[in-house]
Amino acid sequence: MYPEGYYFNADQPSESAKVNLEEIMASLKSLSRQMESVLTPDGSQKSPAPSCRDLKICHPEFKSGEYWIDPNQGCKMDAIKVHCNMESGETCVSSNPSNIPRKNWWASQDGHSKKHVWFGDSMDGGFHFSYGYNGVSEDIVETQLAFLRIRSTQASQNITYYCKNSIAYMDYENGNVKKALRLMSTADMELKAEGNRKFTYNVLEDGCTNHTGEWGKTIFEYRTRKTVHLPIVDIAPFDIGGKDQEFGVDIGPVCFL
Q1: Chain centroid to CA 240
Q2: How far apart are the first and last CA of the chain?
Q3: Which of 78, 86, 132, 229 shows its CA 20 to 30 Å from the CA of 141?
Q4: Could you give the CA distance from residue 198 to residue 192 in angstroms, rounded to a whole number?
């Protein structure tokens, strides 16, 4: 029984109804923010984009720099940090480490190598190139790279070879490229100076054409529409083995578009 003088208004919500309504509104706002994050990611670790191209489409005002992407669109805990070129939309994943120190890496019995020698496979202290920032496992990076290749239509990468008495591409004395460097792709395909155009690199600068006793550099570039061919995971110089022959390498980021 209601107390005397109490009038019940059927249109008046109860206290429990008010509480439920507030909870529903809060849930809707939270869901709206989550949907907004999925539909228009901002490239943060909490809201990674599928790729830099997607981020550029959502936020054309963003500047080039470091952002987070999640190409496999699974749990965002496996998102990776990349460099986004917001002018082109390229997604660039850095190598780790990004260079091979300059020194004498290979000594042959006769003082000169007679074949290409793979840095990661054969040289003492050598290693295969890996990618991604510190703190992220290689397995996660490999998985994300696989999905990034699927999302992309082209890929590119530069390798800079520093030389001291070591031919990198053109042998000026002999007038040929028989001593030119070879590159190994992640698909176990050799990229060479000549041959099938699908598997030949370009040379942007060649400062390692003869033995001068001074340091020089040669810049290699490989561009392809077969995104499975990149990144590069190893290099094989030919003109090494002497005590006065040294080399080092800058491993450029692999970029997808």
Answers
A1: 29
A2: 73
A3: 86
A4: 10
Task: Tell whether 11 is covered by a domain.
Answer: no
Q: Which residue has the higher pLDDT, 32 or 40?
A: 40
Nearest CA among 41, 33, 102 for reference residue 67? 41
Number of domains in the chain: 2
- Helices (H), ranges, the chain: 15-39, 52-58, 119-122, 138-151
What is d(CA 180, CA 238) in angstroms, rounded to the nearest whole number? 7
Question: Mean pLDDT over residues 43-58, rounded?
Answer: 95
Q: Which domain holds residue 125?
A: 95-137+145-256
Q: Do 233 and 125 have their domain in common?
A: yes
How far apart (Å, rounded) are the C-alpha atoms in residues 148 and 250? 23
In a domain, 197, yes or no: yes
Structure tokens at 38: 């999925």
